[in-house]
């Protein structure tokens, strides 16, 4: 753990809400997002990068204009002011630390920059977001071993976890074009599926998905690029990882069951995947690094997936939660209710391992590329990170506090993902919500 | 078939080589590529779009400057002069036809533009290419039923073709970042594999791929975009398809066999895929449309994958060929030799069906997105579109004319894909080569 003064839990900000109990965005966090003010009339504002602080956004376009920065920091702020986070992501960890340090100094209690920067704050309630960066390629991994086991049982009762699972960080390519930011509604997809009891040779059915599901994931964003043909060793992975957000990988289970053999999921996944607006940097997460261990009796990772640093602190202690608000709850003014909670430290592979594996064959990753963690379920039955797990494949409906039941999602259901880090002696680091509502099929 | 005067086989060009016997690039073709002159010294030239004609490239940056175009054509040439083909792809078929018609008029024998455009020609031998457009997302389909059956037999002898194959155009997401242009060498990838005879529970091996293969594919480029949530009906697919190139989907068979369950191929495919530099437009291919039919007894496509237009002319009669030149052949000055030949009309699904299927769930496609056809093998044993098929999974080596044998590719092997259309009463339309050499593992 590379803890530095930026993690001091005693640090405070002149932005009062950064000290609010339970805030996701204290001065120790400082995640990046791409935003503009919501306009009721007139032309839309340009997108630019901001940093979350309490319930405010520090507008980095305005902050760059306000001046008072070193030449090095001003050069880093220039692309951010133009809405281009990828340019900073491309520069590796030293640039990130310089920027973090400068922004923290500017926002801390007693900063001489307060008078110049106070007018650069905008309430988060007054802004809308785009994706935080351009994602050229999106890879989805499968690191939730409890999810892989539970889902494997439904598809292959005798053989839930395939022989490669404990050796290969299983992953596949996702669709980048249909990544959308939190708050974007998603239409229920149409597609082919086989209803239960349809004979094997008979025609499939076609229509709106009947088994629509969410998946609770974290998404890691790539920082510095590697060239095609040049693997990144696990010890260098930190240079190439920028930060983390939440990812809801909406899934059409009936389409998936029918289409996925032999090349994997396709239309069951690419009708939309939701990302949270804020990217929490790897630097902000440093205090929550925990040892990476393997259960007794499990194989140790191959050498290219192993390092002392990864063993000592490759895993991350991040609390994860899914909440649902049905149309009926929304009409009644009832807030979303929690469906489950799990922790990212239970993932079977660490981010450094995913990055080393992804590039070991020479595959090139670019700044802003997204690595999904796969669904993060906990070890207990109520900790499934998808409805497929929580309802045992749709066989055991769950009952919500208002008496409604669900096997899979209904039109009008809103799903929210949340994540936060908490421990003694460290400031709470939150991710902000990742949410989306289901619209009827076209 | 929408044949128009642009397909008249009697048309000739003032560029003499466009009339050479066997040329890929007569005046009826006019494919687009992104190029610059090879510089031995001094700063590199900017990339710009050109059109192939005979053994020359018409430099569209120079041609735009030369003037003599209508305002409409000049507006279309402006992004092309800046190296941006995607902007024209985005506009749909009407813009493509306007441009084709203007370029053909300019290049045809007797054109008044000849004096102004003659200085805009550059010999293809003097240029280098980048990818013809920006490919944001790459989907690889699996439409070669003879390939799917042959490969299925190797993995699942009792059950070669899965029950969904004749209903679902099977596809999966590929990696866009590692798409490279013809001529780019590829390093043999390292990765995990299980050697034959390794017990199921034992550790996998790690090292350079031992079963490196090519795949003979066509790649279709998307034209006009569709918005997320808005499917494209099969009758509208033509508006959204820009053209075709060749695609070699290099494949590491040993990595693939170990990693592909349950989410599909990943590191076995994303270490590099090669595209030919030229995109042959759908307009140039019109004379080679042929009826789409299903074998007796096979199910008819579901309604969203069926149309009268698709039945009448949804398939394309394109000859495909793979050639190999080993390092030993190269040293001896021997040219590449053909390994197999097949025809794209044997594909089980048409391009219009792929586009309708890909978007039926609301997935959004963007201009320049790539749809791989999957490996195009013919029905006969010697028509496998990969070594996996030609050597029965590496069990029966093939012998080359110089006496060398191959099961899979060796370092120094160059693989070339070729494609062309020929029939009575139409000009020959060729694709130019798609080639790549294998370098040793790092």
Give a written overview of the molecule.
The structure is a homodimer of 442-residue chains. Chain A has 442 residues and is of the alpha+beta class. Chain A has 2 domains: 5-130, SH3 type barrels (Roll), CATH 2.30.30.230; 138-439, Fumarylacetoacetate hydrolase, domain 2. Helices cover 20% and strands 24% of the residues of chain A. Chain A is built from 12 helices and 27 strands. Chain A has helices at 60-66, 71-81, 86-89, 93-107, 114-117, 145-155, 253-259, 282-285, 308-313, 327-331, 351-359, 387-390; strands at 32-37, 48-53, 56-59, 121-123, 127-130, 138-141, 171-173, 179-181, 186-187, 190-193, 205-208, 212-213, 216-222, 241-248, 251-252, 273-275, 280-281, 289-290, 315-316, 319-325, 337-343, 370-372, 398-399, 405-406, 414-421, 429-430, 434-439. In chain A, strands 6, 7, 8, 13, 14, 16, 17 and 22 form an 8-stranded mixed β-sheet that branches. In chain A, strands 9, 20, 21, 25, 26 and 27 form a 6-stranded mixed β-sheet that branches. Chain A has a 5-stranded antiparallel β-sheet with strand order 4-3-2-1-5. In chain A, helix 1 (60-66) packs antiparallel against helix 2. The first copy, chain A, is globular, with a radius of gyration of 22 Å. The first copy, chain A, starts with 31 loop residues before the first strand and ends with a strand. The model of chain A has no long low-confidence stretch (mean pLDDT 97). At the A-B interface, strand 7, strand 9, strand 10 and helix 7 of A face strand 7, strand 9, strand 10 and helix 7 of B. Chains A, B: Keywords: Calcium, Hydrolase, Magnesium, Metal-binding, Phenylalanine catabolism, Tyrosine catabolism. Chains A, B: Pathway: Amino-acid degradation; L-phenylalanine degradation; acetoacetate and fumarate from L-phenylalanine: step 6/6. Chains A, B: It is an enzyme of class 3 (hydrolase). Chains A, B: This is fumarylacetoacetase.
